[in-house]
Description:
- The complex is a heterodimer of chains A (83) and B (461).
- Chain A is mostly beta strands.
- Chain A has one helix at residues 22-28; strands at residues 5-9, 12-16, 35-36, 42-43, 56-59, 62-65, 76-78.
- In chain A, a hairpin with a 2-residue loop joins strand 5 and strand 6.
- Chain B has 14 helices and 21 strands.
- Chain B folds into three domains: 2-113 and 252-350, 3-Layer(bba) Sandwich (FAD/NAD(P)-binding domain), CATH 3.50.50.60; 116-249, FAD/NAD(P)-binding domain; 367-427, Arc Repressor Mutant, subunit A (Orthogonal Bundle), CATH 1.10.10.
- In chain B, strands 1, 2, 3, 4, 5, 6 and 19 form a seven-stranded mixed β-sheet that branches. In chain B, strands 8-15-9-10-11 form a five-stranded parallel β-sheet. Chain B has a three-stranded antiparallel β-sheet with strand order 12-13-14, with no helix packed on it.
- In chain B, helix 8 (301-318) packs antiparallel against helix 9.
Amino acid sequence: MPTVVTIDVDGQTIDAQPGLSVAAALLRAGIRTLRHSPAGSPRGAFCMMGVCQECLVEIDDVRRQACLVAVEAGMRIVTEAPA
Amino acid sequence: MSRRFDLAVIGAGPAGAHAAMAAAEAGVDCIVLDEAEAAGGQVYRAPVAKPSKLKSETVEGDRLRADLRYSGARLAFGRRVWLIERGFVIHAVSQGGRERLEAEKLILATGTTERVIPFPGWTTPGVIGLAATTILLKSQATLPGRRTLVAGCGPLLTAVAAGILDLGGEVVAVLDRAPRSRWLKALPRLASHPDLLGRGIGWWAKLLRARVPVLHDSDIGEVTAVDDGLVVKTKGGEPFACDAVAVGHGLTPSTDITRLLGVGHRFAPELGGWVPEQDAFGRTNVDGLLVCGDGAGVRGAAAAALAGRLAALAVARDLGRIDQARFEAEASAIQAALTKAGRFGGAMAAMTAPRADDVFGLAPDTIVCRCEDVNRGQIERAIEDGADTIDQLKAWTRAGMGPCQGRMCGEAVAGLLARHVGGRETVGLWTGRPPLRPVAVADLAVDIAYENIPIPKAAPL
């Protein structure tokens, strides 16, 4: 497995380690705000174990929890996915 | 597709993995399911990024994964169990689609979720759980930030702070809710496990060497986002500049499945909160359903592994796979070890036990339910209006109704209501409902071709 791949986050290309969780990869890239709550307050990954649902993003057109999905080359991630 | 097993084990942490291994040893046809892609649970989570140095927990976790792989138990990882029917029918989804399997006996080893007592700013990106941080550090070799403040209570505080230093991060401060005297009082019970106590002392020593300020009897008052990071104010008003906060106040047993299946529960703060009622082997009042590990009451990983083995022995005995003599011989040996391990784990759990006054100090505009943005003021108004159970509060305020289904706010909401109705027992538990986890409708829908949808003939004009 290559040690580094690129993924697309909101149109921006970032380096990420394959196998790392998407949540950890985004954190390493300094991307912290992943969505907004119904009342509009910014939110990011919180529990890292698939419980809190705060890290919900769109990965290759499917809404998934960033902390439970492993990075793969060429992934397209959209933060602020519509609820 | 449906398959039938003697036993299904939900969760492959220390408790579930050991339950599956012990069941397989006793000749029980067993399958173990877990949401993660590998066994280990949270404490022995498989590292995906190479750690800077091999931790003893990684070694123990790798051994557990190898032992389980060759145990003869069927392993099903990456499974999201969203419904269990009595009897038992288990419904799960995975990358491979949906799955249905049947089992005569069911062992739940579903562990815990982290309890974080809300404070102003706890929803700010960059604030993450303490247990969450252990996952980041141990499995992902990732720091929560460059400069992290660590706060809350219990043994994870020093474990996380030391782990951050190991990865080359900076710890701005450790705020420990417990006064130093509480640690000293716990020492005699902790001495029952010199190896684990030694590990804890090593963490303390590391913090001392790095000159990390450790404030006892202290907790976060407020977190605010500023241009280049976060500012934490302690309850005493002392400010700390940082860019990440790791905070946690203990672990709460996950009762979603036991609530769904109608198991009786009792409120036991020293075990983390509400726990399923169980006998010495983990049998509940629902026929064929057993619980073990931290999900049955928080006592730590060492105790969890032993409790898993005990539950499996009980299943093997109840299924007639082992005779009474073998059952008694093996069970008594495990029970002796469990008593010892439970003493250490219990002392640790007691450090983080929920207290009745945990949430009394929350400001009216502090968000309690993260998913639905429900603040304390809204909850208090609903209580004034007559909401006297936690289900009623949920219906009136939407607290606990969002995607996490109350797993993050349940303890705080219950604590606020308990103050008015005379205790957690009166408040009760949220009714368990499927889906246990969010699942995509596409994963549940039946494959059907458009042309195969029956359309009745048009009525004659």
